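So, can you check what follows?
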Amino acid sequence: MKDDGLYTKLLQRGVSRRDFMKFCATMAAALALPSLEVAAIAKALGKGRKPFVVWLEFQDCAGNTESLLRASNPTTAEILLDLISLEYHETLMAPAGKQAVLSRENVVKMQKGKYLVVVEGAIPMKDDGVYCCIGGRTAKDIAREVCGNAAMTIAIGSCASWGGLPAAAPNPTGAVSVQKAVPGIPVVNLPGCPVNTENLTATLVHYLTYGTIPELDSSRRPLFAYGKNIHDLCERRVHFDEGRFVRAWGDDAHRKGWCLYRMGCKGPASYSNCPTIKFNMNTSWPVQAGHGCIACTTEGHWDSMSPFYTKLPNVPGAGMGLTVKKVGAGLAAITAAGFAAHGIRRVVKAKKEKNKSG
């Protein structure tokens, strides 16, 4: 049967046009596009031009794959079978061994410059990359071959975007991000631990609709997903403004849903749409569930944002009744400066301890 795109496939599955348009409207909202663009998205998804996708896994915990498997809007089946043509994914594909490798190599050879790559996990560079090998080849070599011939590479999760946990000090394997391992390629970073699959879907939908990657910030993160401060979007923000803080896990303030700033929440220094799109079918996110943000979308957060249960320095407005608008853009700059000093102090302390032990 001729492939007529996502819309036709969904109709064959019993999904109504109303639900299809609702999905397109959801994607437009996620991409921060005006409602007039819903028609453009619907038209693009109805053309039947599914991109070939190669999903690579390197130094990772498979958390982003697990997030993909729990996608609900659309479902994983709709993403894999209708929105894209997933040709290679070690965890999800049926072939194994040489047959799996052949699937990947065929895409690189036959779809050069047309296919997309999703990379999950950091790439070790120390000792010529021997700390992560697949099918007798290093992650570094595979990434350079596959990403180097792709139309676009999506670094999914904090490990692929920044190096993540594998790159945390002392970084024994020399783990780096995709962008550092394969410089000069078009990369979109979707950090998170794990990423919210809706951000991946929206990025793909943008590419299918306009043939380009979304507008990015200086860290190559899509502005639609990482352009706003978590602190400004948080449902606990009113408690921060009024000086109502949790001071011990499980105390009365914690049970009432008060602000987690004093418990180490890094929301004021982090940018993501977690508070608005949430997880688990849009039901909750870590701060709503009672745990502070650890700034997992921020580069190097394992080192620069720890200890995770120590409050951020120099965050203005706590308990002063200031609105989000009044605190304004200065919050991020002040917090970042304070955290930079905090990170420098930790490095200096570590060097002193090393010198003493030496």
